[in-house]
Design a protein that fits this description.
By secondary structure, this protein is an alpha+beta fold. It folds into 2 domains: about 5-45, Orthogonal Bundle (Arc Repressor Mutant, subunit A); about 65-140, Lrp/AsnC effector binding domain/regulation of amino acid metabolism (RAM) domain (Alpha-Beta Plaits, 2-Layer Sandwich), CATH 3.30.70.920. The protein has helices at about 5-15, 20-30, 30-45, 75-90, 115-125, and strands at about 65-70, 95-100, 105-110, 130-140. It has a 4-stranded antiparallel β-sheet. Helix 2 packs across helix 3 (about 30-45). The termini are close together.
Length: about 150
């Protein structure tokens, strides 16, 4: 169970993962050793799963962000596992979600340009055994992008 100090630590770390322990301790009004112990406990209990650096997509040379919806022919374990394993190896796929509704999976994909997107769709995604349909939407403008989970 999280107390108010844990919640404050998590809120700060989500916004500023590179904050020093001393500054974090100052902001939550704890000693640095006590703050570090809380952070370690939050890591060990799985509240903090990892620390990452988020790159600017365009600066990294990826001009396209797409959402690709995929339907499988069958939902047997062989096709599902094969699809999941194949997608995990594709560096263009930032996220893959198994969903309910008209599609089986939604993928968040980056591409440098339309030629790279075409290559990804035709030469990497379509040949996966069991893929029945692929629908692609191009992002025109990213209205909101966040990695911050509200801490209640």
């Amino acid at each position: 169970m999280l107390d108010e100090l844990d919640k404050a630590i998590l809120e700060i770390l989500q916004a500023e993962a590179r904050i020093s322990n001393a500054e974090l301790a100052r902001r939550v009004n704890l000693s640095p050793p006590a703050t570090l112990a809380r952070v370690r406990r939050l890591e060990e209990t799985g509240y903090i799963s990892r620390y990452v650096t988020i790159l600017d997509q365009k600066q990294a040379g990826y001009d396209m962000l797409c959402f690709v919806r995929v339907s499988l022919q069958l939902h047997d374990s062989e096709q599902v596992n094969g699809f999941r394993e194949a997608v995990q190896q594709m560096s263009e796929v930032l996220e893959c979600h198994h969903v309910t509704g008209d599609y089986d999976y939604i993928l968040k994909v980056v591409a440098r340009n339309t030629k790279d997107l075409e290559n990804f769709l035709i030469n990497q995604l379509t040949p996966i055994p069991g893929v029945a349909r692929i629908y692609t939407s191009l992002v025109l403008n990213e209205v909101k992008s966040s990695t911050v989970i509200p801490i209640q």
